[in-house]
Amino acid sequence: MPAVGFQMPGDEGFAEEKLRLTKNEEELLLKEIRVGIIGTGMISHTHMQRYAKIPNAKVVAACDLNQEKLDAWRAQYGVESGYTDYRELLKRDDIDAVDVCLHNNLHVPMALEVLKAGKHCYCEKPMAGSYADAKFLYDFAKTCGKELSIHLEALFFPQSRVAKEMIDNGALGKVYHARSVGYRRRMRPGLDITGPALFQPEFLTAEYAGHGALYDMGVYHISQILYILGIPKLERVSGMTYQEIGADPRALEGKKFEVEELGLGFAKYENGLTLDILESWAIHMDDIGDSFVVGTKGGLRLPYQLEYQDQVLKYMNLVNGQTTEAEIRFDENEEINRTIDPNLFYNVNDQAHWIAYLSGQIPERIDTAWLALQTMLVSEGIFLSGKLGREVTVDEIEAMSESNAIRVQKTPYGSFQYDF
């Protein structure tokens, strides 16, 4: 595909040549994907900022139970239609895809409604509140003829792309261990991070969130490591979760705090590969370190930085018998890389990747739903191991996982019944 959206100042002739399209390419480029959004809370603003940078994505409708919030949201983004009943949005024939921005245990019920309505579905992370629910959604999506994508932003970091390429090309030799790390010293949603525009108390409840730190932020870090490792097959897991620090009674007033603030795990995968996991919302420690991958020939350290930050990747190995460390930077390199390979535009984030696939601009995409499911599997293994007080097998995790998705949602407009 041509270098759409990349033009060097003062070099209009070059840009014109690069933008010369075939008729088929013009049709693909101009194929608009019309999107509806269900849920106008905090994360929806991040999604909208990304859609604004995707030329052929147009958000045409939104739904939220809070009419006042919905109206303000629509005014902010210039979205033409709004609904307080998601079923009215799903009836529209002119909507191609729906973006689900709800609490964890509403992801599966709403995603199923979207797919049943004949729309493609992009859903916030985590995939569900339990492995059982996530597996049900994944299996259904494979039978309905529509695309399901889960928001896993770290897969599309240049850090992840280059790390995977290095591992696949043998720069690390045989990989035998990895670490997934997510660190917050004191940032529990609704307790240490507050405010109506930020985090609601539902983040802390088993009913809506399912779990805490592992599902909220761990999904980013675990999925990143599993992705660059080629999504290995899980065999066994041990782990524990904690909620020990406590909170100011004034912050807890009127709230339930039912989920973990710290999750720890050790997972064994096929061919002897192991993975240790640490994910904290709150911990009395100043620095935990970074995620990493090590092999027989080298190692990679992956400091977790958001897409708008200057990302780095650190590579350690031996050169002439001497320990060596190289820092790979992406701030300037990515501009050069996108000039050489314009298709990287379609991997700038998961929403751009999804829209590009739906509009036919790329022939295949990363199966984020499968990766999200495998992330759920190891995370649920940690919870089950802690509950049983022993290591658990993958067969036990799959057999003992139970649905905790919301079937009946009470609203100011009556109850929504989700049938599955």
What does this entry look like structurally?
With 420 residues, this protein is α/β, with parallel strands linked by helices. It folds into two domains: 20-153 and 409-417, NAD(P)-binding Rossmann-like Domain (Rossmann fold), CATH 3.40.50.720; 155-349 and 364-400, Dihydrodipicolinate Reductase, domain 2 (2-Layer Sandwich). 34% of the residues lie in helices and 23% in strands. The chain has helices at 12-18, 23-30, 42-51, 67-77, 86-90, 104-116, 131-141, 158-168, 206-209, 213-216, 218-228, 249-252, 333-340, 350-358, 368-388, 394-400, and strands at 33-38, 57-63, 81-83, 97-100, 120-123, 148-150, 175-182, 234-242, 262-269, 274-280, 291-295, 298-302, 312-319, 322-329, 392-393, 408-411, 414-417. The strands form three sheets. The protein has a nine-stranded mixed β-sheet with strand order 14-13-12-11-7-10-9-8-15. A six-stranded parallel β-sheet has the order 3-2-1-4-5-6, with helices on both faces. The protein has a two-stranded antiparallel ribbon with strand order 16-17. Helix 6 (104-116) runs parallel beside helix 7, helix 11 (218-228) packs across helix 15 and helix 15 packs across helix 16. It is globular.
